[in-house]
Design a protein that fits this description.
Order of helices and strands: HEHEHEHEHEHHEHEHEH
Structural class: alpha/beta
Bound molecules: pyridoxal-5'-phosphate
Radius of gyration: 17 Å
Length: about 220
């Protein structure tokens, strides 16, 4: 079932769209079914779970941290994490830079932008993103690279609203890209809204339940 779902969704994605399979709460067995069907990019939203799964999966898996990240947890995954999607402050970037440096790496990051019209806890507005990207601090961070933006639309059946929110993020992305030649990734779209996200210009989707089925949190 997992392999079939993957195949079906891949067919719907244009070739330039990266597919992050969000595997939080799902077993290594289920993840290996996806791996054996060709999936290589996996996303987790908790560092502890990522830590538990990392040694159990093949070494060519590309691990993405898609969830909110606390600074004191960065060190645990700094050795291998490929992309951090939800950076929401300069302080967090500083920590990521320090931990990346200890591991002699450059860690790619996305700034999370708040686009949901309803109140959402995480993410920054456009002006703070602008400020961070222009800051002298960032120039000193040799071991982080901001390669784009991430956003989450409101969880709603109102497709007009979701479309508006994704359009807003795409507009901000295009604007910031002008002065940030490193920009190449716009991470938007989940199981319920990835088709809209692609239409609106996403080039990276984060999909979990459409492949694995509904999560059960026990
Ligand atoms: C869980 C999660 C996803 C995937 O959600 P689905 O609805 O299962 O596709 C995507 N992005 C983030 C940040 C998540 O936490």
């Amino acid at each position: 079932m997992i392999a079939e779902n993957l195949k079906k969704i891949r067919k719907e994605l244009p070739e330039e769209v990266d597919f992050v399979l969000v595997s939080k709460t799902h077993t290594i067995e289920d993840m290996m079914e996806a791996y054996n069907a060709g999936q290589r990019i996996f996303g987790e939203n908790k560092v502890q779970e990522l830590q538990d799964k990392y040694p159990e999966m093949p070494k060519d898996v590309e691990w993405h941290m898609v969830g909110h990240l606390q600074r004191n947890k960065v060190k645990y995954m700094a050795e291998y994490v490929k992309l951090i999607h939800a950076v929401d402050s300069l302080r967090l970037l500083r920590t990521i830079n320090n931990e990346a440096k200890k591991n002699d790496r450059v860690i790619n990051c996305l700034l999370q932008i708040k686009i949901a019209e309803e109140e959402s806890k995480f993410g920054m507005d456009e002006s703070l993103a602008q400020e961070i990207l222009k800051s002298d601090d960032l120039k000193d961070f040799q071991n982080v690279q901001i390669i784009g933006l991430m956003g989450m639309a409101t969880f709603t059946d109102d497709t007009d609203q979701v479309t508006r929110e994704f359009q807003k993020l795409k507009r901000i992305y295009d604007q910031l890209k002008v002065d940030n030649p490193n920009f190449e990734t716009l991470s938007m779209g989940m199981s319920g809204d990835y088709k809209i996200a692609i239409t609106e210009g996403s080039n990276m989707v984060r999909v979990g339940s459409a492949v694995f089925g509904e999560r059960s949190y026990n």
